[in-house]
Specification:
The protein has helices at residues 2-14, 21-33, 42-58. By secondary structure, it is mainly α. It has one domain (2-58): Orthogonal Bundle (Rna Polymerase Sigma Factor, Chain: A). It is elongated and about 35 Å long.
Length: 62
């Protein structure tokens, strides 16, 4: 989940969509929104990865 948020945030920074300092803020917001799932299946991990990427892409759009 952290890696997914980081990848999206860095990509947005490189495109000039966000400031460098927003990278950590996006990761933190994604972590805060995440619910811990003990012993997740691969399907759940895939779902969480996609949800995190979508959420990170929407943050700081204003």
């Amino acid at each position: 989940m952290v890696n997914a948020a980081n990848e999206v945030a860095v990509a947005r920074f490189l495109k000039g969509e966000i400031f460098f300092t927003a990278i950590a803020a996006i990761i933190r917001r994604c972590m805060d929104a995440h619910e811990v799932i003990e012993h997740p299946t691969l399907e759940i991990l895939d779902k969480v990865d996609k949800q995190t990427r979508a959420y990170a892409a929407q943050l700081f759009k204003d």
